[in-house]
Amino acid sequence: MTQPSASPLIAMLDAAPDVAFGVVTIDVSALAADGDGAERWIQVTPRGPVDCRDGRHFIFEPERLVARFQADGIDIPFDFDHGIPTKAKLGEKADAVGWIKKLEARPEGTFAMVEMLAAGAAALKARTHRFVSPTFPHTKDGLALWLHSVALVAAPALPMAAIASASLTPKEQSMLKAIALALGLAEGADEAACLAAISKLSNDPLRPIAKALGLAESADGQACLSAITGLSTAKVDKLVHDQALANLNAATAQVTTLTAQLAARDKTDHDAKVTALLEGALKDKKIVPAQREKYAALCATAEGLADVTALLAATPVSLQASNLDERQIEAGDKPKSEDLLAKAHALIGDAKKAGRELSLADAVVQANKGSID
How far is CA 156 from CA 28, 55, 166, in A? Predict the structure, then answer.
């Protein structure tokens, strides 16, 4: 198998709900007797459940760990004091001091064939690091899923409180809370939520954040979040820390403003489409003015506008145009008002001679070739 560099801690967190290390330690001081570079089998996990003094509970199924190791097809690194996962979290480098070449499931637990490098063998020989401790992602119920790395450590974990897990320290939790608030998230937002929010920011707002954190201007949201989270454990000037949060807050405000502007533009475009649709329907006599307000309400959303557009497209014209506006009245069709009035008075006189009463309105109708009952 090849010996790739260790995966970053962020990648581990993406692959599993949680990560634990320093939970189980096994005395392997006898490894020092075999010499540098020798391959030998050592136990790296127990079998079955393990209860920690801090109340956590883990379960190791060696067959599961061996199957995952064989499926991945890569060697697992040894390090000092879990340096690979802890330093990766801070963007620092940690070298391997040995490599696991094979895994076996045995009745006692998981056993590994280890090729120990010079630095690891020297530490074992000097008895500065007598124990091994695995780093493993696990489920919410504590089931170990796969081995990320194994550490040479100086002291066993079980006689004391477990020294590490993926859970944040109180300082880190306070820092994460401040980051969440600056991003406009709830105070209880986790690291994944903060990372997702930062990743949505454009490159320009991230540049001052990256610069304040001492990163390259091209650093992405994930790199910025890792650096900010590490501020609680690193010695960073308070002014740098405050400036990073201020820049992050400003970037969030800029994104909020841009989002509002886009929403306003979308509404203007939407309203224009609704107006054009309904004016066209009125012109084509597919709706009457009294229906306009109701149709406008149905077009309040993009989906509603699409539905009304389809409905009107399938609606036939129900009010035929009279064409009166375009009709030209010929000169002979329009009687002069004075002639019409004269005829009306003549009809009134004729009616009076015949002993009938005829109103002026009825006389005008008759004079205009109308008729009355």
Answer: 11, 17, 19
